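Pasting as-is:
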Amino acid sequence: MKGRLGNAVYLQHIEDAAAKILRFMDGKTERDFLADELLQDGVVRNLEIIGEAAGKLTTELKAKHPDIAWTKIGGMRNRLAHEYFQTNFTLIYDTVRGFLPEFRARIASLRKATRD
C-alpha cells in the first residue's frame, strides 16, 4: 500500500476538501473570488490537500480509474505549493466552477466502493 492511511482515508480527505471549497465558493462570483484574499487562500489550501491526498493513493487505484486526471491534480498541487508567486486565480476559479463539482461526486462514489 502506497499511502499509510489507505485509499479510503485519502479519498475521504479529497472529498472533504472539495466540499469545503464548494461551500466557500457558494454564491461567489469570479469578481468576489478575485477580490477576496482570504477566500483565495482557503480555496488554494484545500486544492493543495486534494493534490497531496491524490498523490498518496495507490498506483493500482489510480490505474483502475484513468478517467480521473490524477497527473493534472498532482501538477496543480505542485504549482500551488512551489510556484505560489505565479498563481493564476482566474484559472483556479474556472477549475473550481468547471471541474470540482463533478470531480467531488466521482470521488464520493469511488470512496464508497473502496474498502482499504
